[in-house]
Amino acid sequence: MITLVHYNNNDLGDIMWGWGGGQPPPRNNGLSGAGYKVVERMQELGMVVDVAHAHPITLKQVAAMASRPLVDSHTSLCPTEGLEVCGRFHSWKDMERIT
């Protein structure tokens, strides 16, 4: 299992809202080219993709290309909708993508 992103946008993809309520500027518009390749290769090898703290766009892109179940190892569920409220939590809509 590999967690693609965590506290900061990185070379694989973008994160959800950062600590302290500040939104990091998008770096990759979701997954980067390298991120797509890593997820594709993980799927080929039968590895689990951990989407913990992935930005909703990143999560949506991973889910769209996943042929195997995903996991969110440690992101809590936000009881309401909206990034400005949820911070580092996933919405119900996001969680429904993780199957």
Give the number of domains. Answer: 1
Largest sheet: 2 strands, parallel
Low-pLDDT residue intervals, each spanning 5 or more residues:
none
| SSE run | EHEHHH
Structural class by helix and strand composition: mainly alpha
End-to-end Cα distance, whole Å, is 15 Å
Percent of residues in helices: 25-40%
| Annotation field: number of helices | 4
Keywords:
99 residues; 33% helix; 4% strand; two-stranded parallel sheet; mainly alpha
Provide a brief overview of the structure.
With 99 residues, the protein is mostly helical. The chain has helices spanning 33-45, 56-65, 83-86, 92-97; strands at residues 2-3, 49-50. Strand 1, helix 1 (33-45) and strand 2 (49-50) form a beta-alpha-beta unit.
Task: Give structural notes.
The chain is mainly α and 99 residues long. The chain has one domain (2-97). The chain contains four helices and two strands. A two-stranded parallel ribbon has the order 1-2. It is globular. The mean pLDDT is 87.
Task: Record the SSE blueprint.
Elements: E1 2-3, H1 33-45, E2 49-50, H2 56-65, H3 83-86, H4 92-97
Parallel strand pairs: 1-2
